[in-house]
């Protein structure tokens, strides 16, 4: 019994008062270890910040070309438009005079969404496209695949395809050009995604969006859905910060100002509550 008790707590006893990690270590006054690399001797002035970001998130040191692709992908995931929900959070934070860190963190949390945002949506879109490639390779047709998907407003609810406002995603063509310019060929996931986009566009008027394109491309580069979720968790930060700064410089309480009559009440009509008999 004592032996079992000892074994039960062996791991915790071995780590009592210690931090055990394979990720990295700062050696004060000397260097910083990031996985198997020296920050100051292997990475600093030799690799980009995006390469180090992916290294920290996944353990993989990617090529300069792939880092360039990702950096430009981040660039178009963060429009400085306060109509976008996560940016509204940043703007409201500016109105409340919060710190930029609080505003940007709150906006990024708001974008951690199944509907949009770039991080969780990329994870879900990657799960779909990777599963779909396996189904097609097993003999399923595009028509069978699409017919098996639930409908929403009369159209297949496929994450990574179509947009809530405009069916045309202005970021797709520049991404296609960038992919070619950086020397990447379409792999099985991107090939299928393009075929699916053509079919959906012809049949339902809904084509691939940037989330679907990114999911397929990153799948072809050997990343898992969780990898990309971790890489892109702050991809909307720049736009959130911009909207925070914009509202910080505006008159207080001026963002989306409302009067009481601007609120429409659709609930139960006003009614009289009978007096209670004593």
Total helix count?
14
The main sheet orders its strands as 1-2-3
* Radius of gyration computed on alpha carbons: 25 Å
The major pleated sheet works out as: 3 strands, antiparallel
Map the helices and strands:
Layout: H1 2-8, H2 10-14, E1 24-27, E2 31-34, E3 37-38, H3 39-43, H4 49-58, H5 64-75, H6 85-95, H7 100-110, H8 120-137, H9 142-147, E4 151-152, E5 155-156, H10 172-181, H11 188-204, H12 210-220, H13 225-231, H14 237-248
Antiparallel strand pairs: 1-2, 2-3, 4-5
Describe the structure.
The protein has 278 residues and is mainly α. It has 14 helices and 5 strands. The chain has helices spanning 2-8, 10-14, 39-43, 49-58, 64-75, 85-95, 100-110, 120-137, 142-147, 172-181, 188-204, 210-220, 225-231, 237-248, and strands at 24-27, 31-34, 37-38, 151-152, 155-156. The radius of gyration is 25 Å and the shape is globular.
Task: List its traits.
three-stranded antiparallel beta sheet; 278 residues; 5% strand; globular; mainly alpha
Quick recap:
With 278 residues, the protein is mostly helical. The chain has helices at 2-8, 10-14, 39-43, 49-58, 64-75, 85-95, 100-110, 120-137, 142-147, 172-181, 188-204, 210-220, 225-231, 237-248, and strands at residues 24-27, 31-34, 37-38, 151-152, 155-156. A three-stranded antiparallel sheet has the order 1-2-3.
